[in-house]
Amino acid sequence: MDWVKPKHRARQLKKTESTETEVTASTWLKQLCEENVAMLQSSLPIRESQVKSKTTNVSFDCYLRATLWGTGVWEVEKASHQELLNELVDTFGVTNTTSAGKKTTKKLSTKVNGKSGAGKASPASASEIAAATKTAKWISQQLPKNSHDPYVALVCAGWIHALPEVGRSLPASLWLDVLQCALTQVDRAWASGPTDGLFPWIVWACEIPLALAKQLSHLGGKDRIVSETLNRIALILEESSDNPTSFMARGGQDLRALLACMVRCRWSADAVGARKWYPPQRKALGKLAVTTLALTDAEGRQMLFDRDDTTLDEEFWVAINELAGENKKLRLATACALPESIGKTLGERPLKLRKESSLDVSLPKQSQYWEKNSIATMRRSWRDHGCRVAIDFSSDVIWLDVLGADGQRVMSGDWDVNVYRNNKPVQLDVSWQEVCWFSDDDVDYLELECAVEDVCKVQRQIMLMREEGIVFFADALIAENDEHWAVHSTWTTPDDIHLKSEPKTTEGKLVRSGNGEQTAALLLPVAMPEWRRAPSHGKMTASGSTLTLSCETRAKSLYSPLVMSLRGLQQTHAYTWRQLTIAEELQIQPRHIAEAYRVQINKDQWVFYRSLTACTRRTVMGLHLNTEFYAGRFSRTDGEYEPIVEVNPE
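Predicted structure:
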């Protein structure tokens, strides 16, 4: 029997005991580092283009670039946090230089002839070492006080992904200090759960442990950490399949970044030879990806946010489709909904797919509503980039995005309402509540309500009529007493959109400037008379990027609708509208009781009716209604009505 030094034997026994119990991140680091920190640094993998990985072909550069997926929309205390993340990626991510001298990031390639992607075989340069040192010191200063900041978490994750590039050249004490700070935060994340938000928690609790296991896999001691982390991810994914609430927090702001984190976790798990995801986890990932698609515009940018604050993230869509496995629904939806280059990368023919109407049965539902997150999306078709609406009413001010027929934003930003009582503003400081959501093959309809103490209540309607490409907006004010009430409904438009009014009539057009003015939307303020010379209790104006529709009354209720037409505007030659007479018990009813309108665009006609009091039987244009809201198509050839939607109070 070979003699073993007592000290060494005691250390082996200590390691055996710790693996039999729960292994914390700090314990794991201590086991790895107690011999020689310098040995750890010298044994880091070398990033070379010819190095092959056992189970993955993802290069170190892909990890760095992937840390930027879904970022750019967070409001944090210091903008410098985001700038440091961009600097880290620019320093260690592989870039090409064009003839014009501009940097362009290489596209993701996770399968390149069995090799680990293009990389630099030369050692780290002085500038890279300086950048890594600066980042390491910054991480030590920011943790743990700012660990809730998503950019702090991503900078730490990116620094660890870049270890093969810089780890050998840093001072040993600084190198170990960063790892100790990071793993202390990992321990806290495991113990406390996602109290500071799901995204930073997943980075600390899942991505960073797997990233370290990948970098230090040749030293062993990582098996339990990898398996427990994968179990944690599996639980999160499977719970999201039935309840994606946590992924959809804050208007879906973190959704794409969360999925990007899942992608990086999967890459790291593959690099250490960990088990694959099971079908339920891949299915859940696919459902989250479809949800992300539903909140993405035709350019691949996130909706419900400023367009300029988001990016396409083309590599993200390719990677998420690869990890979701043979998910035909996701692949087809991605090819139809996003720019053509992404569909071609996935092996599809987007232009052909968008012409196949039979494909609709193989695609996800056109519209979705996430009740717990107060988010809804409406779309004409997955095969059609245009005529879409996304709405987030989780806060006091509603955010609304409307895409025109060409897929570009016609409205984007706050959809607000201001109420005045006897010329004094009434504060609407309570949240909006959903009253009705309805969706079928013809229409999507959402109604919201905001009650203001005992003074009044405001009800908002938004409806997408799919076949016509028409969006119907309306604000209804219902008060207790007859007073002087005024409602100002406002929409936010992009900088390149402006209102073009007609000199004699009250309709307007939203026109996009650029290569010649192009009409993006036709606006019909149907509560106002068609001709400006007629008496009116409202007006439609624009100032800067704000479109305002004003309406007033001296009764106790009013109705302010707006019809927006998005399709076939180049062929729209005639349009008109009229207020209709409403009768109840053979008596004509005033406007504060109920309102109805007939709208005609070219040869198509529609009727809209809204009751502002308790529902009772009334007649309008041959219709006998006992409902709160009615929208229907009217055939002028035979006088028949085809109901689109009817809303009845409970």
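Summary: The first helix runs from residue 6 to 20.
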